[in-house]
Fold:
Amino acid sequence: MYRRWSFGFALLSLLTLPAFSADSSQTWYFATSGDSRNCGDVVMPAIAADALKHNVAFYWHLGDLRAIYGPDEDFMQERSREGKPTDLAEYEKDAWDDFIANQINPWGETPFFLGIGNHETTAPKSRTAFLQKFHDYLDRQEIREQRLKDDSAATQPRTYYHWMRDGIDFIYLDNATGSDFEAAQMQWIKGVLDRDRKDQAIHTIVVGMHEALPQSISANHSMNESPMGIETGTSVYRMLLSMQNTAHKKVYVLASHSHYFMDGIFNTEYWRTNGGVLPGWIIGTAGAQRYPLPPAAGDAKAAKTNVYGYLMATVNPEGEAPGTIKFKFEELKEDSIPENVVQRFTKQFVHQCFDGNRRLMPIQ
Structure:
């Protein structure tokens, strides 16, 4: 049904690497994307293979690992190749193991940071089940040490977290249910940003989440989908805007949920006239069914659909101020899929993932 990648190391060693350290002026890289259901077992190994050529420091997944409401096409294809039918109950039981085997393991020893998406709370899955299954990923040494530094009583991992490296605070927020941030998380993010504001060693804040903050170009498929999502998401946006404009921190905001690439998602009339535009990206291109671009996509700096790929982040580019990050979309073509993956799923299925796997009608 799925195969485990062999790299000759224990999972425990992957999750307990020493805390990050780096010269504040050194150039380094990380990769990020989200939404790897449907054809993610085909696409994610290609993302890993391509990103690892750049010696990325880590990969950050922005949620939606498997479809859960029904078997992913890649899961069914592998079962079919083995001459086995796909049983829904068996799929629901094995879906997250399939994700670990086929989408995390190709990264080898490269640290893998994991975010929750709405499909991780689709019945019979839940936030509690996600915490249990992915406990070790949500309790990586970098995350655990920072969590305990913030609050010595916070002994257990949560679905929202942050860690620091090289003067950058990397923050993951959980809006996987109800399209909003619940009260405890709102108190937590306020505390994190208040500390960052006072900390002269922190010059950059990178915030990742599944659904984009409200009033983006992708508003029809974002935190705008609920009144509390609008309220809590707008509050977080304004906190981040204050960090940029009054605390003079560099701020970058990442999301997926919409299955396309977009740079400049907050260049909307609302934010242009209600405080200002934050740098923002949508990168839901790791294997999920591709969506048409929204009507206002022309207002973005760049936008592409019916593509797969990831964001390559260059930290401290030559000639830029410390903490500056440049993001570049790395598009993967059909011939980017590793040969062993093609052999497992067949060339015809890989072509189907690239030629099909798309939604014809816009999200309403």
Notes: Confidence is low (pLDDT under 50) at residues 1-22. The chain has twelve helices and twelve strands.
